[in-house]
Specification:
The chain is of the alpha/beta class. Helices cover 48% and strands 9% of the residues. It has a 4-stranded parallel β-sheet. It has a 4-stranded parallel β-sheet with strand order 6-5-7-8, with helices on both faces. The longest helix is centred in the middle third of the chain and has 17 residues. It starts with 5 loop residues before the first helix and ends with a helix.
Length: 350
């Protein structure tokens, strides 16, 4: 069906936004199945930025009462508990190292994000290990952290996004941090790109993704790595939010190439042409089977290039690719490990 491809979605959105067709549940279904991954932009000679078109259509759908129920539930969780999963805010710091002591102020603030905090056990301890090894002055908000609001933005609820932006920026500014480091690709895009465009003021504050931060520490000679006993072939998966959306392609590869025992192998489709992991655009919650199929196909591509592991720089990618890898094992299509790049760096430290 053409309504499942970029041209079809663009046509649907245009016709709705110009009043030629009315918003409907079926129209919403098609527009909420878009990953907003921007792959279409870089495979199309016209370079149409469909993410902006679909986002505008989703805002209209939300205003007209067609926001899917699953997204209403997730946004309610953000408003009531500071995260889309409806988890207890007191549990947000459960994965922090036991000896971590938050500071009221610090030069660097790690903003961990909801997925790293509630759905992952390794990313947060890993970034803290790296920072401690480098002798960095840092802190994290822990239980005081709230959702950056990216999900609300993605699905078109701009009022909820504005509330999240204000709450997050208020908490960040109280720390006096000069550098904010995001472990999540979505948080990074939100802080670096969306907040300034929607009224957020970062004057005097630098926003970095964790991989940019680590790349800087490595190039300054502040991290040492132990020799590797064996070589691991690693396929790097470009997250859409820091890849096509923010054009960050080389820092992750520079980090991988500097790690002992790591051989970087590229997906057949990488950088601008990289395929989505299936976790983008709010689709994982809205259409999990579709998301799972896309993740599975990406994992099969990693198997095809002989990778021992797939490494990304986004906790949502890690989550999706782990599901794809589990299906590949179950269907006897191949075995690959799935890691966040921050984990691999922490494991390699001397």
């Amino acid at each position: 069906l053409e309504t499942m491809n970029a041209r079809g979605r663009n046509t649907l959105a245009y016709n709705m936004l110009t009043g030629q067709i009315e918003p409907s549940t079926d129209l919403a279904r098609r527009l909420y199945q878009c990953m907003i991954c921007l792959n279409c932009k870089y495979t199309c000679p016209a370079q149409v930025d469909l993410s902006h078109v679909v986002h505008a259509a989703r805002v209209r759908l939300t205003e007209q009462g067609f926001l899917p129920d699953i997204h209403k539930s997730l946004i309610a969780g953000i408003g009531e508990r500071g995260n889309p999963f409806g988890e207890d805010p007191a549990k947000r710091a459960d994965v922090f190292p036991k000896d971590f002591q938050a500071k009221d102020t610090a030069d660097t603030l790690f903003y961990m994000g909801c997925v790293s905090s509630y759905q992952d056990l390794k990313i947060i301890p890993s970034i803290m290990k790296v920072a401690r090894t480098a002798g960095e002055d840092f802190t994290a908000l822990g239980q005081g952290e709230v959702c950056c609001g990216y999900l609300a933005y993605l699905v078109g609820d701009m009022k909820a996004f504005d509330r999240s932006r204000q709450a997050a920026m208020d908490r960040i500014k109280k720390t006096g941090a000069k550098t904010v480091v995001a472990t999540c690709a979505g948080c990074y895009k939100t802080f670096h790109d969306l907040y300034p465009k929607t009224g957020g003021d970062w004057e005097g504050v630098k926003v970095l993704h964790a991989i940019e931060y680590i790349d800087g520490l490595m190039k300054a000679g502040r991290l040492n790595f132990k020799p590797a006993a064996e070589t691991t072939k690693v396929a790097y998966h470009d997250p859409c939010d820091i890849g096509r959306h923010m054009m960050m392609y080389e820092p992750p590869r520079d980090v991988l190439k500097a790690l002992p025992g790591v051989e970087l192998v590229e997906f057949p489709l990488n950088r601008n042409l990289a395929k989505c992991c299936g976790g983008g655009g709010g689709v994982k919650a809205f259409d999990n089977p579709l998301s799972g199929d896309i993740a599975f196909e990406r994992v099969l591509q990693a198997v095809g290039v002989g990778a021992d592991a797939v490494v990304s720089a986004c906790p949502s990618c890690k989550n999706s690719l782990n599901q794809g890898a589990a299906r590949a094992r179950k269907e006897k299509k191949g075995k690959v490990k799935v890691l966040d790049l921050v984990e691999l760096v922490a494991q390699s430290l001397a």
